[in-house]
Each structure stands twice: as structure tokens, then as C-alpha cells.
């Protein structure tokens, strides 16, 4: 018992060590797997946010490029023709025609207003012409309603405009390029050069080519064509071609004012999103830019990235409130709030988790298998020890009887003939008991070894009963029991596929157990009943003994279950007969079981297959 306890304690210690190591490995692996999953989710979210930012910046790029490319002079509602060429062809100088700004009738859902703050700090817009230019603009370029809309926006912008703050946000323009003096062709001054503004503007339609192409380089052919058009306009106004031709001459170059345009920068002023820049014209500085339609841009950008970030939002990000950890756009001072990012990664167990589950299953299965094998080995060792003690006890009793009775008979100590016969019968019973014990042990040893096919034959049920009756009756007679056979006459001729010797040994073990345990009862009858049930032949051995308890029924068919102590307290035997009988029955394709307990006695049922089934 002490060795068994030590063995189980060593097994429990080893198992606890293995489980602790497995638990540590599992916790470490799960943490690593969770960290990797979180990193993958974060990387996927960051990738979606990055793509959304790139897509938003790409959508804003054409707007930024378009506004950055606008020349400084288009921020006037009407500008002199020489401004169109001053920065392109410095050879051409003419002041006869005014050109309408392309911003005068400009329409874009992304821009509310273009504005300009001159050296006089007055806020103007090319979309809100003043004085005589208003009549010209509404006559052929833009409707009065649109001018009113722009005027109202200009008034709103004027309430929130902060020129010193805007200047502080914008970088200074680069130094203007050095001007050169060269001969230029220009028209000589004429007395009627100051043509009324209305007449000049009515002919500005002829000059729209210049306004629409003011942002790109002219070819020499296009410049010549436009110069011819301008001269034709001048001749029309002067109505004196001869005088105009006489006044055309080459004069020394008059250097235009040096112009330097600063980079366009986005900024927030009073809740308005502006694109603005500094422009230096000579020694004077002007602010130019546009007022962006922030809500429309926000809705457009969010709609374009809805597939990536369905719950995203855009918020203003003023320069003085910039967050270095925020997701900011590069084109505009906006901060992206991504919101909950939809994860496309699966939540199914990963390969590491499946590996851990399989490892735990294998470890637990191995531990269970080792525990079962260890339990079986310990149980077998204990039962073998009990078997040895029981066999020793069972052999010592008859051997003692043999020695005592043979010495008495050999020494002539028994003179009475009847006593001598009684002693001889006792010696015969003990010999039969030893023979039965040895037969059971040898039979069980044969079945416990490598199994060989049982020798089965078809035997009539009645022949099995007749063959076993005489031996069973003699066994019951020696125990002072009454053996009764109850058979179904219709079943006696039914052939049973079995080994007749094995069936006889099973019945002998069952009847022997009944004689041992029911020998002290008042009803000393033992029944052998035979019948057929479906495709089986059934043999029932019943007695009227004390029965079997529920606890003993669980261990009834275990081999070597009875120790010497139990054998001394109960009927003699080593607890091998029922285990042997069940193995013999199952080896023949049948079974042996103890039937549910009734009020009195015990009943064992042996079933065997019928021949031909």
C-alpha cells in the first residue's frame, strides 16, 4: 500500500511539473499570438488610414495646383492687357485694351470666393466688380444675382478676416528676378488714348483668348496673332488707321514692375479655410487667395473614402493647435478622425492556438493513458498479490488435510471402517477441489496469453445439458445441495455453436459458486434453466442465497479479486472462476452476466449463438 502511494505521488509530481511547463508555454504563446494579432489589426487599420489620407490628398491636389498656378493679375475683375504678357513676353507693351479676369465668372463647388487684400488693406474680390466695371461685368460676363451672392460672401469674409494674423502665417515671397532693358514695340501715346472704360470692355470679347491662356507659355505665332488683334481693336477705337500707323514706333524699353509670388498656403482664419499667398509688386505687398467651401470639401472627401473608413470624420487642424500624433492631411490643415476601423481579419483560432489545443489534448491524453496504465498495473499487481495469497491459502488448507489424514491412515490410527471411508471421501473432495483450482488457473493462463481461435462445433442443447448433468449433480450432492434442471422441450434439439468442454466448465464454476454461497440457506435448491431467445441459447444458474451487493457487482468479473483475508471470511476460492467463465463465453461469441437482483438469490445468464447464425 505504501509503495502504491509513493508511486502515485511520483506520478502526480511529474504530471504537475509537465502541466506547469505547458501552462507557461501556453500563456507565453497566447500572449505572443494576441500581440501579433493586435499588431496585424493595427497595421491593417494604419494601412486603411494611410490609403484614405493619400486618396484625400490626391483628390485635393488638382484644386491646390489650379489655385497655385493663377497669375497675380487675375485677382482684378478687369486688368490691362499688358499684364497678360508682362511675365511672358516682355517685348509687348500696350495699354489700350482691358481683359476680363477668368475669375469673374468662375464657378466651383469647392471655392466660395477669391479675394485680394491690397497695400491699402482693403478686402476686394475679382468676383465683386465695382464702379463702371460692375455694369460691364453684368452686361456680358456674370449675372447680377451671382454678383450679389459673392458680395454677401465678401462681407462675411471681411468680418472674420485678420490681416496681421494671415501675414504671420504666410511665408515671404522669393526675391523678384532682375529686370532687363531691351527695345520693345509699343504704340506711341495718342491724344485719344484714354478711351472710355465701357468702350474698352465691350470689345474685351476679342481678347478672351489671352485671358484663357494667361497661365501657359505662348508660341511666337500665337503672340503675333494676338498683337494683330490688339492693333485692330486700337484702329477701330481710333477710327484713324493712318494716324495709328504713324504713331507706332519702337521706343526704349520701359521695365515693368518687379513681381514675386509667394507659395500658396492653407490656413484657418476665424473658422474659414483659406488658400492664401503673398505677392510683391515692386515695393508693395498684396495678399491673394480663395475661401474654400469647407463643408462641401469635407463631405466630398469622406464620401470618397467611405469604403475604407465608414465612420471617419474630418476636423479643422489650425496651426496653433496641431497635434503631432494626429492623422493630418498634407494638402490642407485637416485632421482625420478614423473612428472604428472595420477589420477584415478573421477571428478564428490561429495556427498557434490550434497547435496549443492539439498539444494540450496530446498531453492530457498521454497523462490519462499513463494514469490508466499505471492504475491497471497497480491494480494488477495488487490483484496478483491477492491471488498469490489466496492460492497459498487455498493450497495450504487441502494440503494440511492431506497430510493429516494420510498420516492418520498410514499410522493405523483410524480403526473404524466408516471413519476411514469418511476420511477417504474427504481426501477425494479436497483432491477434486485442488484439481478444479488448477484447471481454472491453467485455463485463465491460456486465455490471457496470445489468443487462438476457439474450436467451435454445433452441439444440440440437450446434449450439453446431459453431458454436464452428472458432474453438476455430484458437485451439488457433495455440498448437500439439490440440483434441478428445467428445460424447454422445444429447445433441446436446437444446435448451439460452442465448445462443449468450455460450456461444461462455465456451468461447473457457476454451480460451484452457488454451492459455496447458498450452502447455509434454508432453500438449498440450485436451478439450471435452458431456453432459446431470438438467435441465442440461454443457460441460467439460479440459487436462493444471500445475493450480491451493488458494490460487489461492479467487481464481480475481475480476475484475482479475492484476497486471502476475504477468502477466510467468505466461501473458499481465489476469485478467478467468474472472470474465467466470462472470458470463455466471449471467446465462443457469447456472454456471461449477472442478472438484475431479485428479492432472494442470485442468477447468472450464459448466452451462446445458435448454429448457423
Tell me what the structure shows.
- The protein is α+β, with helices and mostly antiparallel strands.
- 50% of the residues lie in helices and 17% in strands.
- The strands form 6 sheets. Strands 4, 5, 8, 9, 10 and 11 form a 6-stranded antiparallel beta sheet that branches. Strands 16-18-19-21-20 form a 5-stranded mixed beta sheet, covered by helices on one side. It has a 3-stranded mixed beta sheet with strand order 2-6-7.
- A hairpin with a 2-residue loop joins strand 10 and strand 11.
- It is rod-shaped and about 165 Å long.
- About 15% of the residues have low confidence.
Brief account:
This protein has 613 residues and is α+β, with helices and mostly antiparallel strands. The protein contains 17 helices and 21 strands. The longest helix is centred in the N-terminal third of the chain and has 67 residues, at 2-68.
Features:
single chain; 613 residues; alpha+beta; Heat Shock Protein 90; 6-stranded antiparallel beta sheet; 5-stranded mixed beta sheet; 17 helices; 50% helix; 17% strand
Give the overall pLDDT as a whole number.
77
Give a short account of the largest sheet. 6 strands, antiparallel
What gross morphology would you assign? Answer: rod-shaped
Tell me the total number of β-strands: 21
Tally of helical runs:
17
Intertermini distance: 49 Å
Amino acid at each position: 500500500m505504501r509503495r502504491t502511494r509513493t508511486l502515485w505521488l511520483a506520478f502526480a509530481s511529474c504530471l504537475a511539473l509537465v502541466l506547469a511547463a505547458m501552462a507557461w508555454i501556453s500563456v507565453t504563446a497566447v500572449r505572443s499570438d494576441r500581440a501579433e494579432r493586435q499588431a496585424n489589426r493595427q497595421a491593417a487599420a494604419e494601412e486603411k488610414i494611410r490609403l484614405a489620407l493619400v486618396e484625400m490628398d490626391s483628390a485635393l491636389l488638382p484644386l491646390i495646383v489650379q489655385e497655385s498656378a493663377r497669375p497675380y493679375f487675375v485677382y482684378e475683375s478687369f486688368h490691362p492687357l499688358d499684364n497678360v504678357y508682362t511675365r511672358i513676353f516682355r517685348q509687348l507693351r500696350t495699354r489700350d485694351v482691358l481683359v476680363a479676369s477668368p475669375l469673374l465668372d468662375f464657378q466651383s463647388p469647392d471655392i466660395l470666393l477669391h479675394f485680394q487684400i491690397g497695400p491699402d488693406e482693403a478686402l476686394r474680390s475679382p468676383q465683386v466688380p465695382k464702379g463702371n466695371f460692375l455694369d460691364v461685368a453684368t452686361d456680358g460676363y456674370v449675372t447680377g444675382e451671382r454678383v450679389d451672392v459673392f458680395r454677401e460672401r465678401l462681407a462675411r469674409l471681411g468680418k472674420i478676416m485678420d490681416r496681421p494674423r494671415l501675414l504671420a502665417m504666410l511665408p515671404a515671397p522669393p526675391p523678384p528676378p532682375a529686370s532687363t532693358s531691351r527695345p520693345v514695340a509699343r504704340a506711341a501715346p495718342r491724344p485719344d488714348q484714354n478711351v472710355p472704360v465701357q468702350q474698352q470692355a465691350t470689345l474685351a470679347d476679342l481678347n478672351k483668348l489671352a485671358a484663357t491662356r494667361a497661365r501657359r507659355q505662348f508660341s511666337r505665332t500665337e503672340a503675333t496673332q494676338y498683337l494683330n488683334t490688339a492693333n485692330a481693336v486700337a484702329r477701330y477705337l481710333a477710327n484713324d488707321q493712318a494716324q495709328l500707323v504713324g504713331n507706332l514706333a519702337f521706343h526704349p524699353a520701359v521695365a515693368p514692375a518687379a513681381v514675386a509670388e509667394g507659395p500658396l498656403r492653407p490656413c484657418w482664419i476665424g473658422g474659414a479655410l483659406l488658400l492664401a499667398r503673398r505677392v510683391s509688386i515692386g515695393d508693395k505687398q498684396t495678399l491673394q487667395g480663395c475661401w474654400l467651401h469647407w463643408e462641401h470639401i469635407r463631405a466630398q472627401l469622406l464620401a470618397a473614402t467611405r469604403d475604407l473608413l465608414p465612420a471617419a470624420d474630418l476636423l479643422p487642424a489650425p496651426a496653433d493647435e496641431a497635434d503631432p500624433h494626429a492623422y493630418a492631411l498634407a494638402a490642407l490643415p485637416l485632421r482625420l478622425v478614423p473612428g472604428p476601423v472595420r477589420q477584415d481579419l478573421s477571428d478564428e483560432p490561429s495556427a498557434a492556438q490550434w497547435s496549443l489545443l492539439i498539444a494540450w489534448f496530446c498531453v492530457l491524453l498521454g497523462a490519462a493513458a499513463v494514469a490508466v496504465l499505471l492504475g491497471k498495473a497497480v491494480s494488477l499487481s495488487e490483484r496478483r498479490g491477492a491471488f498469490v495469497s489466496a492460492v497459498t491459502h487455498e493450497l495450504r488448507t487441502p494440503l494440511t488435510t492431506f497430510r493429516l489424514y494420510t498420516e492418520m491412515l498410514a499410522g493405523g490410527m483410524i480403526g473404524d471402517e466408516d471413519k476411514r471411508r469418511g476420511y477417504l471421501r474427504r481426501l477425494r473432495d479436497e483432491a477434486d477441489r485442488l484439481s478444479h483450482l488448477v484447471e481454472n488457473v491453467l485455463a485463465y493462463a491460456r486465455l490471457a496469453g496470445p489468443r487462438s481461435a476457439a474450436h467451435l462445433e454445433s452441439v444440440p442443447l440437450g446434449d450439453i445439458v446431459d453431458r454436464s448433468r452428472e458432474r453438476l449433480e455430484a458437485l451439488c450432492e457433495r455440498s448437500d445441495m439439490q440440483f434441478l434442471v428445467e428445460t424447454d422441450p422445444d429447445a433441446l434439439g436446437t444446435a448451439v455453436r460452442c465448445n462443449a468442454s468450455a460450456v461444461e466448465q462455465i456451468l461447473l464454476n457457476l454451480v460451484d459458486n452457488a454451492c459455496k454461497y447458498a450452502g447455509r440457506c434454508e432453500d438449498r435448491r440450485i436451478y439450471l434453466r435452458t431456453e432459446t431467445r431470438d438467435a441465442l441459447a440461454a443457460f441460467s444458474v439460479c440459487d436462493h442465497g444471500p445475493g450480491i451487493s451493488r458494490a460487489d457487482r461492479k467487481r464481480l468479473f475481475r480476475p484475482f479479486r479475492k484476497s486471502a483475508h476475504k477468502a477466510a471470511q467468505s466461501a473458499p476460492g481465489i476469485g478467478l472462476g467468474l472472470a474465467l467463465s466470462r472470458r470463455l463465453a466471449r471467446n465462443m461469441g457469447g456472454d456471461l452476466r449477472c442478472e438484475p437482483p431479485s428479492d432472494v438469490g442470485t442468477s447468472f445468464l450464459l448466452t451462446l449463438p445458435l448454429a448457423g447464425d
